[in-house]
């Protein structure tokens, strides 16, 4: 398909220039997610739901229960700090145990002794890049989880 575009000259005049264009009339979008995790110590962030429904912490130690009282989880969405959530007092993750932390509006929540609800926020938030950091009660970073979504748009040219 060919169209014309008006191009201004340096002397102030304009001219019509033919421009070749492809016509795209259908396509699909694919999402590919990748993540990076890092931990200093026995507690790690093993999963962050892409829709922001929950986060799962894990104690990788087979011999020591980990007290995570007053630890902070900081969430950064697309480069902007969304919020900070402080874990409640007297919270312990048992050996090889997990702690699932739901957002308030996560939908069907299966509360078990190893899960809590973050009442202060509806969800953990979502975006193209979701960064989650775990800090101990002294403000030292103990773990991180970075989830990156890449959108690939596949377009199909029309048969015109």
Automatic annotation (TrEMBL):
InterPro entries: Lamin_tail_dom, Lamin_tail_dom_sf. Residues 31-149 form the LTD domain. The keyword Amino-acid biosynthesis does not apply. Pfam families: LTD (PF00932). PROSITE patterns: LTD (PS51841). Keywords: Coiled coil. The keyword Coiled coil applies. It comes from the Eukaryota. PANTHER family: INTERMEDIATE FILAMENT PROTEIN IFB-2, LAMIN DM0-RELATED. This is LTD domain-containing protein. It comes from Caenorhabditis elegans. The lineage of its organism: Eukaryota, Metazoa, Ecdysozoa, Nematoda, Chromadorea.
């Amino acid at each position: 398909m060919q169209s014309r575009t008006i191009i201004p000259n340096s002397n102030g005049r304009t001219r019509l220039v033919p421009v070749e264009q492809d016509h795209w009339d259908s396509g699909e979008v694919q999402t590919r997610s990748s993540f990076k995790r890092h931990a200093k110590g026995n507690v790690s962030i093993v999963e962050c739901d892409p829709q922001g429904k929950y986060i799962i912490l894990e104690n990788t130690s087979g011999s020591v229960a980990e007290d995570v009282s007053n630890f902070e989880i900081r969430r950064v969405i697309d480069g902007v700090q969304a919020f900070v959530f402080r874990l409640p007092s007297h919270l312990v993750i048992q050996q090889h145990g997990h702690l699932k932390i739901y957002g308030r509006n996560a939908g069907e929540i299966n509360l078990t002794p190893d899960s809590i609800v973050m009442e202060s926020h509806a969800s953990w938030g979502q975006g193209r890049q979701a960064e989650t950091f775990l800090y101990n009660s002294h403000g030292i970073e103990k773990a991180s989880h970075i989830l990156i979504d890449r959108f690939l748009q596949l377009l199909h040219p029309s048969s015109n």
